[in-house]
Design brief:
2 copies of one chain form a homodimer. Chain A contains 20 helices and 10 strands. Chain A has 490 residues and is α/β, with parallel strands linked by helices. Chain A has 2 domains: 228 residues, Rossmann fold, CATH 3.40.50.300; 222 residues, P-loop containing nucleotide triphosphate hydrolases (Rossmann fold, 3-Layer(aba) Sandwich).
Amino acid sequence: MSTPMLGRKPMTKEQYERVLPPLRNALLAAQKRMQDEKSFALAVVVTGRPTAGRSETVNEFLEWLDPKHIRVHALDKLRKVSRTWPVMWRYWNTLPARGQIAFYFMGWYEDYTSPALTQPKKSQRHSERTLERIRQFEALLTRNGVRVLKMHLTIDAKLERERIRELRKSKLTRWRVTGEERWLARHHDRATKVTQQGIEATSRPGLEWNLIDGTDPQSRSFAAGTALLDALEKGIRKSAANKAPKPKPVSSKRRPFPTSPPEGRVEDDFYDEELERLRGRFALLARRGKFARHGAVLAFEGMDAAGKGGAIRRLTSALDARQYNVIPVSAPTPEELSYPYLWRFWRHIPQRGEISIFDRTWYGRVLVERVRGFAAAEDWQRAYGEINEFEQELTEHGLIVHKFWLSVSKEEQLRRFEERDKDELKSYKVDPQDWVNRKLYDQYQLAAHEMIARTDTEHAPWTVVEADDKKYARLKVLRTACEQIEQRLG
Amino acid sequence: MSTPMLGRKPMTKEQYERVLPPLRNALLAAQKRMQDEKSFALAVVVTGRPTAGRSETVNEFLEWLDPKHIRVHALDKLRKVSRTWPVMWRYWNTLPARGQIAFYFMGWYEDYTSPALTQPKKSQRHSERTLERIRQFEALLTRNGVRVLKMHLTIDAKLERERIRELRKSKLTRWRVTGEERWLARHHDRATKVTQQGIEATSRPGLEWNLIDGTDPQSRSFAAGTALLDALEKGIRKSAANKAPKPKPVSSKRRPFPTSPPEGRVEDDFYDEELERLRGRFALLARRGKFARHGAVLAFEGMDAAGKGGAIRRLTSALDARQYNVIPVSAPTPEELSYPYLWRFWRHIPQRGEISIFDRTWYGRVLVERVRGFAAAEDWQRAYGEINEFEQELTEHGLIVHKFWLSVSKEEQLRRFEERDKDELKSYKVDPQDWVNRKLYDQYQLAAHEMIARTDTEHAPWTVVEADDKKYARLKVLRTACEQIEQRLG
């Protein structure tokens, strides 16, 4: 951890007034450049004791910078609305876009400090998992265009007590002291220890904490401003130097996925009856009281014309339209591109008791973006880990996550393309891009193999569905979805 | 109300198979054109008995159209998260952008039907208010680029009972019948009456209901598809013919707002002490238990350099950063322009217990957009009523809404511009547009007069703040905010 801001001598008023204007000028200039270039975003986490100047620091930043491109987020751990979604949902939903700055008051650290302070024994495992989640999250942001600047404001126990006493003396300032502050002051040592552990556990190269001494307001302001300027300038320099490496060529060969039903074609009569039976089973599962405490994410991937849409409609026709959402995923819009790539999926994560069905997913990163070269090799290669972490987040919250790869043969795909071309009603379904993708069929297969090998986890498994027979595929999808939900509900 | 879809003869399978393909072709073509032109959005509300084919209709639309530009929303009235925000928040947050279609399962009518059915006596006034709100909302959407298509599926009592009996007979289909459906079937007449009243109360020119007979599935599908096609084609024709009328010239003259403090300049000592006292009062108010059941929206308008930012910072410095959000409002982005103009403000409405402070607001419509001619006369002229309705929505939910007009004289404004120009740190604050706006000072004054005259309501009042003396203005803002909150909390 970097501690360059600690132990400085107090700043005189004259010193402060001399050094501040150039700092503010530099900050404004850096912010302007950042806005113009839109090459990175900045998330600033400000933690520390309230009496060390937490609020004051954020307020000063708002005064120094152009506030039009800044958001301040104060996320209350107790907010009911947040418990409806996975913990990280609220951070994803407030991320700054490239060119923008967001200040997070306590940020995602409150998820760690609060329980660690108030229930120190009970929460050992919870704390460790929370710190791991924070490390993963910050690493993911850093690698995806969001710089993270962390500042922790410190103050010693004696001065903290003095400040509180001073404020409480006068009617005019007594309101400034909350119950939380007094609690923290009474438990200064414990709070310091917990914080220290959190800081040590989350300091990584490029993600160091800035410890800022809150003893003297002028030194504090100047130190905080300097740290912010440094982060902005590093962001600008880094993005100027940034060149995307070429993707590695896809080379090795693997056995293709099965595409035909192992038991042969499904008969029409059997299909009709079995479909109705499975839909009933699925509908009843989704209506079970226990399901309301969970919810599900069903993800569909597969080559064009593999039958994703048809399989999805068989699922949804069993559900009340109030309970599900189908999310068709296309190429990202310019707005979506200005955020980390998982951002646009977090927006569609279901509440408890609901079902989100993704027609194409976050796996686009390691499929189309990899094969077509839309993502740099280092970007899609690290995506496996990021995706596993993302799905773990969801399942830890209680969501049931299951993924389907609809496997269609090259021959059957061609047959379906031609059929669509002939059928005026389906012709909108064939995109010129589909033919380009078809030429890359083998590379897609390879990418899919690697994807499944690396992301078929216990908490979020894949099912490969032999999709040359549409009826077989639809039944298998429904049956698997039922089995998975039954298993998780117990 | 239009009833062309009722009383048709059942359609034979042959008839259906003959008429369907041309209908689907026409629907796809219309959807494509709508997407390309992006001149309007379509919100389709589907209500009616479940056994009349509500779900089936929405599912068919998804099959017939290109689903990539469609969203289906099923809004559960019981959802906790919704009670955190005003009722209409969830509809605003799911509106389709121009070029897109959204289906609303029961839509905003569930807010009316549910209480009217289950608590018929208690809710008379509530029902009337809800219907009024629906009328206003639909009118606002229609005038702001969102076409509204309403379909109600009917079925007679006998057939409804038969269908339910039939479905319940077999294990395979029993799951299709929910408790709600059985309740509705038992109370067929009452439900029909309530629905009928709702339909009559909300049928307006251009917002007629399509009553669709659900007796025969094929007639139903065809009727629903025809109604959808009609809505799409009307939307396309209308937008092609649409020409914005020229804004009326601003002419009449009014007495200017006061700009100097009535009691003379505020002395520094008094200011410091009074500011601290008021901040304490404000902070304590925001922390009162009762405030957690309310929340506040504080809106700031005024000419450039009127001191909005400074006044806002004096308010926020009294608050815990977790409790408030400052929302700086700039010119709308292209994304924002593809929605009705109030959409971007709904997104920032606070939850209960929180405070949203708007630095410029939805009044831009009747200020800058009027004066500069960015909005057509008919658009800004009807905005007064729409804004009053919007603010009433907020206050009915319990939010405290107060609006400040910071009134600065032409001379003082010039002095501040020049001061900013000299001060390097503040130079980013002066935009070339500010000088253009300054030339239109008198027209802004006139627009502001009319704005306050038309929107100074009991539930959401304006306070004109004499802002030539910054210190006086800041104290008056803080004092007024305190008084208003105290008054509302009782």
